[in-house]
Amino acid sequence: MDSLPGHLLNKVLFKTDLRALAMLCCTNTSLQSHIHDPSFVSEYYSQIKSSLLHISTYGSPYLVYHHPHSGSRSHKTKNRLMECHILECCSGLLLLFIDDRLCVTNPIRKKFRFLTRRDKRKQLGLVVNQLDRTTQNFKVVYIFEMAKTDETKYGFEINAGDSWTYSKTTLTCHTSNLDDRMKNHVYLNGSLHWLRNDGSIIAFNPETEQARLIQTDFPRGLTSRTLFASGVNSLTLVSANEKVIYVYALRNILSDPKWVLEKQIQNGVIDKNIVTWYVEAYNGKCLVLRTCYDGVVHVYDLSASKWAVMASVPIWYDANLDFFLFTPSLYSVVGLDDILACGDRGISSLSSIMTLVDRSSPENQLMKMSVDEKEEVKLHLGMLFE
């Protein structure tokens, strides 16, 4: 590999799946340095499409995974897990509730850490920060009400992999419940954000342990199908009707926060005859809708301005599902351990989940190179591509 010019080496590596890329990092120091160069990492990850995970909102032994290259109607399922919840995914990590325990895992690197239990699962948030160009760390944050009268006082607990510690930070504000209609919290720019029923947002930074209330009002005309999500660089509300999907971004978040209409997307998959459908996920690059009468998951690619069918939900699944757009990561993570073979049913289920969401594909990624690219590589390496 060292004999390849940089542009050719990149062409080979860009066609290599993440699992193999992680293994290549162990071959020699020069290749490891090249793979972890910020410019290579940025371009490589820009080409990765998010996979789709979904599971029952109430927990299930059935976890379904759709790979973006596996065909629009195909999926992989693990159906002998202990009852499992997916609580969050962030920067290639999954936060799971499995075997009555919380677990943080990087399924690509086969690393994990079980945490002590917290019952209020919807009030947990996963934060992943970049320490350097090869390493991340994680924290799990639990938000809770310390008192509730005319005002509500919130407290926070933080777990970085070892134990829960109470933050000295508290936040007192007017009373309003955390909004559970629009899925979970949103992590953006180092802070977790919980939406409340009155439109205000609680923001907490686990590194600085600073908390504040972002006071804002909901945009007019929000429908019952509204999702609180993270856009490319802003908190986002996605509100849909049968004709149009409105995407609002929260602007001037530090000074004068206001929801601003950013995009209008024509709803090309729903008509008046379809009664039950949901907005399931959004990440600034794609939007996911699900129709319940046929179980089809539709994805809108914002860069291509195009709808496509990504998946079909198995007919045995219930109507209440949590969907997650998962983008894998090869970074090492401080605080995660190697997976071990043992008789623990929780570990066995976790190993199955890791295998399921491993991005590696049975097809030879190098075969996707053009004929000219293969010929150029052969000149330098003498490789024979059949």
UniProtKB/TrEMBL annotation:
Signal peptide: none annotated. Residues 78-218 form the F-box associated beta-propeller type domain. Pfam families: FBA_1. InterPro entries: F-box-assoc_dom_typ1 (IPR006527), F-box-like_dom_sf (IPR036047), SCF_F-box_component (IPR050796). It comes from the Eukaryota. This is F-box associated beta-propeller type 1 domain-containing protein.
